[in-house]
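pasting for the record
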Amino acid sequence: MDERRVADYFIISGVPEQAEQRVESKPFINSVLPITDVTVIIKSLGEQCPIGYTCIEFTPGGHVADLNNGNFKSPDIHICYRRGNDKPPLVDVGVYHQDKDRVLPDVEVVYKTPYGRFASTGNSLKSGTFITFRRAKTNNPYNQLVVVDLCVILNNKSEHPPHAFYSIKKNLNKSYYGMIGSEVFLCYKKSLLAPPSLCYTPQIISRFPLQDCATFPLPDTVPLFCLPAGASIELRPSNSPLPRPVTSTFVLTSDSAQKIYGSALSFYEPYDRSLLSQEQKVRLGLSEEDGDDATENQAPKEDTYALKSICILSRWPFFDCFEKFLTFLHKLVFSPHYSPNKPNSPTHKNNVSGTSH
């Protein structure tokens, strides 16, 4: 007898609650912290690199990274930068020529060194040349390109930007004396700023029906198609907007060469922090103030979320219809008016014994 089912399986995939069932899909790597501050120091006047900063001493080719390189009548100026996560990272750096550029409203200019001296490079008497930067907005620092590295190159020494670096085509060493001095360019590298996370191999958390169909057993690899990048536990700032749910489709082939069509919707869901081990909390960078004992007057600064997916498997390629249904189901469950104890809720229907396909 041919069963006319619209869908064969409904699956929820993600990070299992039981710690012994979690399998890390990627080794934990301490990613490079983004750059949060940039300044310049005048070494020839005895200025030292500020505490916590890194000074760019040399170019990729081994030359001195003096912004006035080869200009003997100018002081030795070097760029210093600081990494961290205590403030919004930099999303752009630039070079400002005072005589012909205009400063945008959200751009900050490094006019002074940490010691209060004039931070202009070159020796032009008409105008100054300054380093500029633009900072990310505080309400959503993640999932955007931020500056993660800086370097200085000398164009007249046949130096080129390192791999993945972008060169700002504005000479930092503008000389009043014409061609004296090297052509000094600032280069920066950007990377996608991801929140602190732990990535695991996705597994089936729940499914319906509970037994496999005789014509098509449920493949164990379905969660990998629902969450190909892995199921992650992430730490995000409180009150920051979450990424929108993402829909995807895939096609599986059974042993009998029958095609099975999958429609999935992945989303972020609040994750109970008490399920994390002490080691996981340390790796996520959770402090004691953000732990389980946070009081009402001391709310956590960051919330914990887990990436989860809901999926429909069917022998019919009704991708548009399934996407609309999954989107509706997601909105229904995360609606403030939703209650899982209502008789019409999907949870109640799923628990009814003897439910047919």
